[in-house]
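COURSE: Structural Biology Practicum
ASSIGNMENT: Worksheet 4, Part C
STUDENT ID: 0417
INSTRUCTIONS: Below are two proteins. For each, the amino acid sequence is given first, followed by its structure token string. Answer the questions at the end about the second protein only.

PROTEIN I
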Amino acid sequence: MDYRVEEIAQAAGVGVDTVRFYQGRGLLPPPQRRGRVAIYGDAHLERLRRIRELNRQGLTLDAVRRVLEQEGRAGFAQALLGALERAEGERSYSPEELAAAAGVPEPVLEAMRRAALLEPVPIDGRPRYSETDLRSVRSARVLLEAGLPLEQLLPLAREHAAHVRELAERAVELFDRSVRRADRGDALAPEEVVARVQQLLPAASALVALHFQRALIERVRARLERRAEPADPPATAGEADEA
């Protein structure tokens, strides 16, 4: 729900000056701007009510800020982990279940795990795999059924994984600086960061996959063009004598 400053002040049971005071002290995130109008949301209202509750407990503004920061970090971490889990799929698989669902023997899973193509998460002391892992194993099965040898695919996979980890780390740093704006005064609210992650994660994944697909297509076309080039014609008898 959207609120103007007068409306959110009334809903929270405080004065307009109090809303602006909390905002000026950094206790309340800045509102969105629609032209010259400041628009607040339900998250702002919840924050105002929490500040009032902490004030009634006798906490100073500095103490309120520390409590809110701790709650914000914990809530942000849980929300972000939830978004990442939803991206990977809610169901998890044991090694036996994953092998059966993907239609491959378990040694293939172990080989893919060593190549960093699979990353199980320990749950109750046992490795569990995500729905993303299931899609990866099924893709690997297609490659193997096409005749690509596993012992030569795995070195390529390990090299790819090493580069991907480095690029992913740099991409996360770029997101932190440019989107989350963690080191700037206009940093996004936690709920907005989670929304951006949910929006950007599939887009970034698709971009990388499509780029690799395009590179493969270009390499195939280049090889076909080289094979289609006519060979040098044989020399004639006269040309051979002149040589």
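PROTEIN II
(use this one for the questions)
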Amino acid sequence: MFETALFYVLAAVLLASGLRVITARNPVHGALFLVLAFFNAAGLWLLLGAEFLAIALVVVYVGAVMVLFLFVVMMLDINLERVREGFWRNLPLALVVAVIMLFEMVGVLANRIYGATPRPVPLDYSNTRALGRVLYTDYLFAFETAAVILLVAIIAAISLTLRRRKDTRAQDPSIQVLAKKSERVRLVSMPAETE
């Protein structure tokens, strides 16, 4: 009973926040509603027992992608009138995509209700452990290749954006080592002040 009520609460908030994503006039508000939708989707996945997908959604999308998106939206000066002009022009394509998505969701639900039943799993089954076992045995080479490609992309992004600024003060250790004892302190003789 509690899980059913929690499902309906999470689903209602997910639908409401999803509608606010596309109807919000401010892009920052739309992005924040998308973060709320992601959190509710993660809660639904937790109810379904897909812990890895829930954590991956929160960490990857909310923690990385949406923060980057919010940063870009807030840093750019977006002309909202030009963004709204394309709404009616893109509406027919959006309706076609919405009908296709609705058909797919009805198909998935109809298959779930009238079609095949899911495979029974033991009580101590962990989808995270099963995913890790498959990922690190059958797909180890592809996983390591993707990790190396991401590492190269991170290093390339850092090296492309790294610029030397003129006003930074940096120390050169090779010059500091060449300093002599006599050059470090300079005694200055000053006459005493008298009134």
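ANSWER KEY EXCERPT:
Q1: Residues 80-114 form the longest helix (35 residues).
Q2: Helices lie at 2-23, 27-48, 51-75, 80-114, 127-137, 140-161, 173-177, 181-184.
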